[in-house]
Amino acid sequence: VLNRQKQELFIVVDGIDRAERQNVEFIQQVRAVIGDLPARNAKVTALITSQPDNKIKEVLSGLPNIEYDEERKEYLASLRFDNTRYSKISEEHKGSLEWLWTHNQYQEWSSSNNSRLLCIEGKPGSGKSTLAKYFKDNFLEWNPDAESAILADFFFSYREGKLQTSHHNMLRSVLYAILDQNETFFYHFQSKYRIHKKSSAAGHVEWSYSLLKDILLSLRDHEKEERIYLIVDAVDESDDEDRRDILQLLLELCSTSKCCIIKIFIASRPVSEVQHYINKFHNIIRMQDETKADIKKFTDSFLGPELGLTGDLLREATEYIVDHAQGVFLWVSLVREEMRSLPEKGYRDREIIEQLKALPTEMEHFYERIVNKMEQGSLRDVRDGTRMFQYVLFALRPLTVKELQHALAIDGDPNRASIPSDQSFEGELIQGMEKRIAHCGGGLLEIKGDGNVQVIHQTVREFFLRRGGHVAKSRFKVRERDAHASITIICTRYLLLCAANTALENKLLDVEDWTSQHFDAYTQYLNERPLMNYTLSFLKHHISGC
C-alpha cells in the first residue's frame, strides 16, 4: 500500500513460513527489498508474520519482533504461585461423597444460568477439604457438558505455612488458572500489566493485593459468555485480616457478572466472617447433616475386617460410632487408630465394645487422652516429641522427615551433638524414623506423600497452642517463645557443626587462599546437609521470635 503524497509504504507479508520449501533465499530477498526502500525516499512500515521457526528467526534477526503470546506468558510467570495443600488432602473413602451431585442445594447452584456462590459449612474434621478435592477431581466426570469451563482453585492451609494462608497468593493463583486456561481473558490484564511492568524495577512485576482484586472483579465485564468455577477451600484458615473483604469480593463478583457465569464453591468452618455473610450466600450445605451414610461406610470398612466383629456386636459398634461421630470423620479415624491393635492384645469382642464406649466422644477430650498417654513416655520420648511439635507448629514451612531427623540429632549437650551422615540417616529411616515420629507424636503427626511432617488436622494445632489449655499444663509445654529459642539453638549448632565437620580435603587451608573450586566444593557440602536450607533461610526469623 503506497501513499504517494506522503511517500509512505505499508507492506504486509503474511505466513512467510508457508513460502515454497521455506526458501531462505526468498526470505533474504524480502528483507533486502524492505531494507532498500528507505533509500528511495519512502517511509516503510512492514509487517511479516510467521509460525515459530528458528530458520526464519535467524534470517530476520535484528528486526523488531513480537512472539505470539509472549506477553501473556510473561504475565503468567509473574502470577505463578505453588499452592501446596491440595496434594496432601486425604482421598475420600471409596463410594462416599457421591451424595453431592444429587443434593438439591448443589443442583440448584450448578444448573442455574446465573452466577452463584455455594458454601460448604461444617464442623472441624467433618471432611470439608476432602469434599472440595473430590469436587475438583470428579467435576468433569459428573458434568461432561462443562468440558470447556474454566476451573480455578485455592486450598488455604495454616499448617503449610504463612504463604498458604495469604489472600494475595489466593488471588494470584486463581487468576493464573483462569488466564492459563483461556487466553481471551488477557485483555482484562494487559493494560495494567504494561503500566505495572514499566514502573517495576528491572521489569520484575510484583502485584499488589488491591490491583489483583480489581483484575478479578473486572472479569464480570467479560464480553464473551464463559463459565468459571472457582473453588476456595478452608476459608477459616486464611489470614484473619481481609477475610471479610475477600468474601465481599466473591459475592460482588457473582452478583454483578454480565455475560460470564461464575460459580463459586467455598468451604469453611462457621467462623464469624462466614456467619456474617451466611444469609447472602446463594446455596449452603452443612457437612455434618449429610455424612451419616459415608461415616457408616467408613466404619464398616474396619469394624469387621480389622477388628473381627460380627453379628449383633458389629451392629452395636456401628450404631454407636455413627451416632456419636456427629458428622466428624476425624473422630472416627482416631477411634479406628485406638482400636485396631486391640485384637493383637487379646481383647475379646465384648471387651472391644467396652473399650470403644470408654473413648472420649469430644475431639478436645480425645486429644487430651492422647497427650496424657504421650506424657507417660521416657524422658527422651518427651524431649523428642516436644521438639517435633515445636518445629511442626512454628517452622515457617513444613519440614521433611530428613530435616526433622537432623534437627533431633542436635543434642541438648553441644559436646555430644553430631550431624548424621547420609548413610546413617538412611539406616535410621529404614529402621523406623517414621515409627519414631508416630510414637513421639502420639499419632497426632503424619508424614505426607511429599515427605513433609505435619499435624493430622488444624484442630490439633489449635489444641496445642491454646493458652492455659491442657498442653500448657503438661510436660509438652509448646510455647511460642520457647519454640523459637529451641529452633534458634538447634539451627545455630547445626551451622557450627557443618563448619567444623566439612569434608573438604583442604579444610585447614586459610579461607583467604581458597580457589573457586574450594568454594564450589564447600557449597556442595552445605547443600547436602538437609537442615541447612531451612537454617539459612529462616534462622533470622526464629532469633527475632525469641
Task: Explain how this protein is built.
There is one protein chain. The chain is of the alpha/beta class and 546 residues long. The protein is 49% helix and 10% strand. It is built from 22 helices and eleven strands. The chain has helices spanning 24-36, 54-59, 70-79, 104-111, 128-142, 167-181, 187-199, 209-218, 243-256, 272-277, 292-303, 311-325, 329-339, 349-358, 363-375, 379-394, 401-409, 422-440, 458-465, 480-500, 516-527, 532-545; strands spanning 2-3, 8-13, 43-48, 116-121, 150-155, 227-233, 261-268, 283-286, 399-400, 445-447, 452-455. Strands 5-6-7-4-8 form a five-stranded parallel sheet, with helices on both faces. A hairpin with a 4-residue loop joins β10 and β11. The longest helix has 21 residues, at 480-500. The N and C termini lie far apart (74 Å). The mean pLDDT is 88.
Give the topology.
Blueprint lengths: L1 E2 L4 E6 L10 H13 L6 E6 L5 H6 L10 H10 L24 H8 L4 E6 L6 H15 L7 E6 L11 H15 L5 H13 L9 H10 L8 E7 L9 H14 L4 E8 L3 H6 L5 E4 L5 H12 L7 H15 L3 H11 L9 H10 L4 H13 L3 H16 L4 E2 H9 L12 H19 L4 E3 L4 E4 L2 H8 L14 H21 L15 H12 L4 H14 L1
Parallel strand pairs: 2-3, 4-7, 4-8, 5-6, 6-7
Antiparallel strand pairs: 1-2, 9-11, 10-11
